[in-house]
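Intended use. Records such as the Aminopeptidase entry shown here are meant for training and evaluating sequence-to-structure methods. They are not intended to support clinical decisions.
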Amino acid sequence: MSKGVYISKALAVATVVLTVSAVGAIITMITIFQLQVNENPPSRPPTVPVTTEGPTGPPPNMRLPNNLVPEEYTVYLQPYLYPEVYNGTNQTFTFTGNSTVKFKCVKVTNRIYVHSKDLNVTSVWVTDESGMSLPIKAKSLQEDDSNFFEIKLQSRLKVQGTYHLFTAFEGEMFDDLTGIYVSQYTENGDEERFLVASQMQPTDARKVFPCFDEPAMKAVFRITMIHREKTRAHSNAKETGPPKTTEIDGEKWLITEFHPTNKMSTYLLAFIVSTFDVKETKYQRSTVRTWARPEAIKAGHADYAQKITGDILKFYEELYGISYPLNKLDQMALPDFGAGAMENWGLITYRETALLYEEGVSSTSNKEWVATVIAHELAHQWFGNLVTMKWWNDLWLNEGFATYISYLGVDRVEPSWNIKDLIVLNDIQAVFQVDALASSHPLSSNEMDVQTPAVISQLFDSITYSKGAAVLRMLSDYISDKVFQNGLQSYLKANQYGNADYKDLWSHLQEAVNANKDNYNVAEVMDAWTKQMGYPVVTINTMNGAVSQQHFLLNQTSPYNFLWHIPIRLMKSNKGLTQDFLNEKGPVTKEVYETTGKEWILANVNCTGYFRVNYNQENWERLLQQLIDDHHEIPVINRGQLIDDAFNLARAKYIDVTLALNTTKYLLNDTEFIPWESALKNLDYFILMFDRSEVYGPMKAYLRKQVEPLYRHFEDLTINSTVPEEHTAQYNQINAISVACSNDIRDCIDMAKAQFQRWMTDPSTNRIPPNLRSTIYCNAIAAGSEAEWEFAWEKYQNATIATEKDKLRYALSCTKDIWLLSRYLSYTLDPEKIRKMDAVSTINYIARNVAGQSLAWDFIQSQWTYISQEYGGGIMSLGSLIDGVTQRFSSEFELQKLKQFQAEHAEDTLSSGTRALQQAIERTQANIKWVKENKQTVLEWFRRESAAS
């Protein structure tokens, strides 16, 4: 099938549009361009030093040669899309445009290489500074992953010479959520609307216009949009004035011209043409605007985002020591968007669920997500946009930093949430799982290993985001937050409007360390964390004070001789904190790790370090006894850490599995979210491994016993639809209901069914508290029949709030009816039913259901060719799909299915899923071994503990 759901409509009119309208439009744009050049003649650029003559043949790899440096683009774009379609209107999804890039020649060459993909380049001119045309010998698009458009000149370009490359082009806008694309939605119930949106990261600016599409090829951009009447165009910079009206082929069009941007990378460009409404406020010298569907703006769904944006900007200006660099900030809530959000400089784009919030409908987690994503994208306006990584191998500098700093930004605007503690659950414990596999990768990859768009896309993973955040948090804690801030400010000021790599950051942080008269070697400490894959387990023997480190892998002994420089904060029972530093493998004996009598040691206090901790049996037993006697003596973060470390140490065979299970016994007396969530995430592995075996019955009985006090703790609040005061308590109330219902506590199931039935009886009034809707919907549908499913499906189709649609979309996957799950899977390939951006997560939801797991795997096997073509362009989509549908794999039969799938599909069809498939194979092999070794022991433990009074 051709790419994009709108293709059949587009092809019906594409020929007419491109032959009749394109020529006139291009002439119009060229005329406008020439008038503006005359009004604003280009200034002479600075002199570039003469360099030695470089080769003139094709580039030796997938990177652009460094003989040409872009300085300024003038781009005209004309999307032909209508925002509304009336009777007799032929909707079209084509665009035309032209671009003139002024560039400097720094090495002799007779070839110009730019990137171009999926474009029909209709005209090419090259002129020198005087405007004289340079004869072109040949031009061609290279047939490989480089996407190089090569222009061979009859004569060589001169060093220090300034030249202009003009290209006219035409293309189609698909619904693939990349480049410049089409988004479709409804207003006023059932009225169809269309908008033009863009997503350039990482390598899709080349799908919009020919350009030097690499992050270090920064330039100034002058953008002009030619768009339909009754629409508004947006780009990175402010408009120069109101749109001008012109006539093209008998139709009225609007021309919106934007001020020149700051010097920036191509992947940060953004273009939107819509009929959205706006919420606007003034922030110091900048205008802050939030744009969304008119219905959403009118209903106040953008109010929360608008309220917190200015405060987060102010905090970042203090943190970075640099004012927000632009005079406007637009935030756009898009009905269709592949990622969570994108940090385009001055025009940030979001999924609706990441920007819009409605009090009384959206949940606490929805609100936290909005705040977190806004804080993440605003962090990028400096770290990533103002200073950009030189190449994609250092993507973690952008994403890891923004992930870490987002916790600080949210903490500033919502201090009562204690959000900074949740990085341990959301990022550190999560990425530990991936980074404990032999198929993991270092934060900083070798530059030569990151060449093609597919490989670049694979870097947008949890290692880049979450491990990046974790090691930066560790570094900030190690050298002190103030010194970290000073070094960061120095780094940004020194490299603003330019590019840098991790060595530049270490250098400026080292200067800050030296200025503080500290004796830390930043590069020496951090290189081990960024250049090596994985992380260490620190083993402490409190009987003799011995401490050592070892590369932690879940299912094998490490073949690498890795050594980390590890800052360790530890505490002894009834004593204060101590700091140590381990920079050798060991074991080495240190008095600080010795205990006497019944004393215990707890290392990695508050999980500031990126490592796991193992102890001798005696210390483990003392810690477990302390949890039973008075768990408050151990910090809440470390209660979660002890559970998470123990379960994973057991999987790697450092300790016995029964010791890990014993860490959950004290939870009868704990109502805090972090330890409960840590336990449930790890017990979820046991559920995945055993919910198709005889272990599951005793396991459910144990979980029922453990969760009963927690469910009763929140029961009155639940029955009275009251929200707990504390942020994390609201999350643990959800945990209590989810675990109680799924493990057959009758009161919980009856409560969920009654609340859902009350809604079905009165569909116009939903009294289920927003925080509890997801779990109550799910459990009511799981306990119900076709009637509950169909009711939820109708509500999903008619929901106008994106967060509510997401809750219902998840809940629909909870049914136990195989035929409903099978039909639901088929819906994921129909964008009229499930939006493309939601297809992967919906399939993964179904795979999480034990009744749907095998259905989901069979489905993606049979549909892989179509899925890889339609959904393969989005960041992380295919990787997260493979990861999601294979979580339960734990048999030789399932392993062979994976290997067969790998053999049947070449790397080009696996695309961004290549690494995820290898990780799935490795994980399945580990699961097979673990189940074989532990099944009987686990069965006996659950039987014994569930029967104990």
